[in-house]
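Z., the sequence and structure:
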Amino acid sequence: MPIFPEYESFDGVGLATLVERGVISPEELLETAISRIELWNPKLNAVIFKMYDQARQAIADGIPEGPFRGVPFLVKDLLTDYAGIPLTSGSRFTEDYRPKRDSELVVRIKKSGLITLGKTNVPEFGLSSVTEPVLFGPTLNPWDLSRSPGGSSGGSAAAVAAGMVPMAHGNDGAGSIRIPASHCGLFGFKPSRGRTPSGSEVMRMWESMVVEHVLTRTVRDSAAMLDVLAGPELGSSISLPRPAETFASCLNKPFSKLQIGLMEQPFFPAKVSSECGVAAHKAGLLCQNLGHSVESVSLKINSEEVSLAYVIVIAGEIAATIKRLGGIIGHKPRHHDLERQTAVIRQIGEYISAADFAWAGDVLDNAARHMAHFFQDYDVLITPTMSAGPPKIGQLKPDIFEQGLLEVLSHVPFAPLLRKALEHAASRNFAFYPFTPIYNISGQPAMSVPLYWNKEGLPMGVQFAGRIGAEETLLQLAAQLEVACPWVEKRPLMQRENS
């Protein structure tokens, strides 16, 4: 079957239009996508399950007449219940787990006409800002093979950046869409809490801080996919109603002047590189040139208390997840089934009390209320997405002392040491991503926009956040930025050398 040489020049909407007009067939698109995966995946390790036969069968059975009919797609191997396909969550513990039915998220993906041809690599249970699981090994960044694409949607980000597919699924519980989007030069949009269905049967994953969407190269693909995924989920208590107008149509509407705040200081203690600050500052100037009002602002939260509360919630949720999966699999995890960090987080989750968990929920709710008050005066807040550019592979692994502590705690959950580990995890983790988690806590929409490349030629995203339910405002602004400062034609060197 002939390969479509212009494949990488089109986004998802563009490819769907070609299929609709009969210019190319879904079969040709699928085989082209497969050829791209076979070319790049041995170098990147982005796709860990290939679903080529299932994809071919889906086309043979008849593709739904959805907006993305025939467009190749990849799903993240975390919180995506796809009947009969492994769902490992990057863990040796769940290596053989296969869900028996599709989640609502997967149902909507299939109805849109997308052709899923694989699953992408993730850190174990999504607990890291880099994608380096022991089970499958690290995913590499197409912009620099010595660096990480970020996490936890690192496999999806690397695949899209390399041109394997025009867009791929991701989920975001602390920045897991926005972090890899920043590191890979992509558009990464986290919708409001409750805008999209949960990926799995658990409807309140991480106390509803996890939100499902995609990573894309273009704004219109993200908007069109939000139209596919958005809408109430049966049984969910946090679902937002479907808006009267489509998100895709809002991109072309007349745009009003926005009141924008610009903040270069992180929400949580961290050393922010000068280049990240420059990226945010230039984004502010660009918005000003587009006619918006931009002013420097400060926004303080009780970072020590909030970060501790966040880690308490995550630890409790991870312990509950592992317990639930153990019931499905039929046994508890053995020592070698979990990575050390995950094992200790599980121990912390089992150690904390119901009172600790309730306290943490109150702290996070108060932080969300504080953020909501700020956005009564501002439509958008600009910050860097990250504190630095893409890290080297292995750079964020625990040092020797931390490894020793983790090893001890994974065997002997000594309560005082667990408390110290809890406090250390809270301060250490947020130093790597001090700008993104607050919007998972508050439930607000936020996006990483690829507006800046550093002196090494590596992408560094800029984060924009808005009020809950105000995806339209952010998407309209992103469309303006895309026209004013185009990024789609910027491709990784490894891709350009083979084009």
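The chain is about 40% helix and 10% strand. The first strand starts at residue 47 and ends at 50.

Let me know what you think.
H.
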